[in-house]
Amino acid sequence: MSTAILLVDDHRMMRDGLRAVIEKEAEMRLVGEAENGRKAVELTRELVPDVVVMDVGMPDMNGIEATRRILAENPDVKVIALSTHDDERYVHAILDAGASGYVLKKDASDDLLRAIEAATSGKYFLSPGITGLVVRDRAPRSQETSTSAGHALSPREREVLQLLAEGKTSREIAAALSRSVKTVETQRREIMRKLDIHSVAELTKYAVREGLTGLEP
Fold first, then answer.
1. Strands (E), the chain
2. In 42, 71, 72, 106, which residue has its Cα 20 to 30 A from 78's Cα atom?
3. For the chain, give me the number of helices (H) and strands (E)?
4. Which of 126, 192, 121, 203 has its CA nearest to residue 162?
């Protein structure tokens, strides 16, 4: 039986290239594509793919948050992270969210199929260029990051934080998330309180530093 794959990336050219790689394989089939994490969560719920190839840095909802939500709903789905970044913040954040692998985009033509095969066999795959970041003992880091946004904030607050960091107003965020402006402003104040941050500019810096937004660091 062929492996059903959902491809998630906000760049159409990247999706086109990866689609071509996947469609050459007789034992793999592409069942859908998404341009952001929010759509990825919806399509995973609808299509129930075996593997989601997930871009890490996307606007609207990043791949880290989308991975958390997908695996909370369906822990049998395998997620392969895809990124231009070899920064350990991104690597650890999405592996902590439950991803089964991490592939650098520059190596995707060589590594993606191997990562998919590994994931469906219950194994992990890391592009050679980042293996050293994960080989190190991660236990001390887990304690260190217990107060990071991934742990301190609720899923709804992480959504608001990303959209704030991307320059959205409270009214725009309320419209995007189907909430009231008052609710969004309350959540913004709560985010600032939890993180001990007192301006949107500092929130933006924090979100970029923690890899919680599609913006470049």
1. 3-8, 28-34, 51-55, 78-83, 101-104, 125-126
2. 106
3. 12, 6
4. 203
CATH superfamily name and code, 3-135: Response regulator (3.40.50.2300)
Residue 151: CB atoms within 10 Å: 10
> What does pLDDT average to in each consecutive run of 10 residues of the chain (217 residues)?
94 94 94 95 96 92 92 95 85 89 92 94 88 52 46 82 86 89 91 88 79 58
- DSSP assignment of 102-151 equals EEEGGGHHHHHHHHHHHHHTT--EE-GGGHHHHHS--HHHHHHGGGSHHH
The C-alpha atoms of residue 155 and residue 136 are separated, in whole angstroms, by 28
Nearest-angstrom CA–CA distance, 136 and 140: 10
- Nearest of 26, 89, 17, 92 to residue 53 by alpha carbon: 17
Partners of 101 in the beta sheet? 80, 125
Cβ–Cβ < 8 Å for 100, 80: yes
What pTM value is reported for the model? 0.74
Class of domain 148-209 (CATH, top level): mainly alpha
